[in-house]
Amino acid sequence: MERVGLIDGLEPGTTSSFRVVLQEDSLVQLDDLLVTQQKLPDGSLHRTYGLVAEVYSRLEGASFLSDTARIAQDHTMPGQGMRYADVRVLRHVPELYIPPQSGAEVFKAAGELRREALYEDQMGKGVAVALDQSGMPVMVDLEFLDGTRGGHVSISGVSGVATKTSFALHLLYTLMESPQGRQALGVHAASTRALVFNVKGEDLLHFDQRSRRYSERLAANPDLAEQWRQLGIEEPGPFRSVAFYAPLSRQAGTTAMTDVSSRAGGNLRVYGWPPLDFVKQGLLRFCFADADDGRNQLSFVEQRVRVQLARWTHPSLEHPGAIVMIPPEHGCSFNLEKLVAQKRPPRQAGEGELCRTLADILDFLENQFEVNLQEWAGNTQANTVNAFLRRLQAMAPRFGHLISDKVTSLQLEGPLAPQENVVVVDIHNLHDDGQRFVVGTLLSSVFAAKERGQRFPLHFVVLDELNKYAPRQGSSPLKEVLVDIAARGRSLGVLLIGAQQSASDVEPTVVRNAAIRVVGRLDSGESTADFYRFLTPALRERAIRLLPGTMILDQPLVPSPLPIRFPFPNYATRHDELPDMSEEESQDLFTFR
Amino acid sequence: MISVSEWVPSYGDPHQLEDEQEYARVWEHAELQAVDTPLTPRPRVAFVDGVRRAEALLYLDEITAVAGVLAAGAAVPGGGYAGVRVERVFLRAAEVRLPPQAGGWSWRSLLIPADLNAELALQRAMRELEAEIGLALAREGYALVLDGPMATALPRAVGYVKTQQRSLLPPEQNEALGKLRAGQRSSMFAWGSKHGCYMRLSHDREHQHPYHGLVRLECMGEAESCRAWLHEVAGWLPAFAGVAHLDPRAPQNLQPIAGLEKELRRRCGDPGLALRAVRQAVAQLQKGLS
Question: Which of A64, A66, A76 sits opposite B240 (nearest CB)?
Answer without folding.
Answer: A76
